[in-house]
Design a protein that fits this description.
This protein is an all-alpha fold. It contains 2 helices and no strands. The protein is elongated and about 50 Å long. The two termini are 18 Å apart.
Length: 64
């Protein structure tokens, strides 16, 4: 879950930056699109939640 959380955070950041016209091809439907700024923020927040849950689970159940 930790790896999935990190991947979701990275995707959220990339989508946020594309919405702000910072990265990505100008032909992308996400480029300079204010809706993807909001979507990217929520995707990154979801990734943080997944990361925290994954970390909590791994700390509660240490591997033997």
């Amino acid at each position: 879950m930790i790896a999935i959380g990190l991947a979701v955070i990275v995707f959220g950041i990339v989508f946020f930056l594309q919405g702000n016209s910072i990265v990505g091809p100008t032909t992308s439907f996400m480029y300079s699109n204010p809706q993807w700024i909001v979507n990217g923020e929520w995707i990154a927040i979801s990734g943080v939640i997944i990361l925290v849950v994954g970390t909590g689970i791994s700390l509660r159940h240490p591997r033997s």
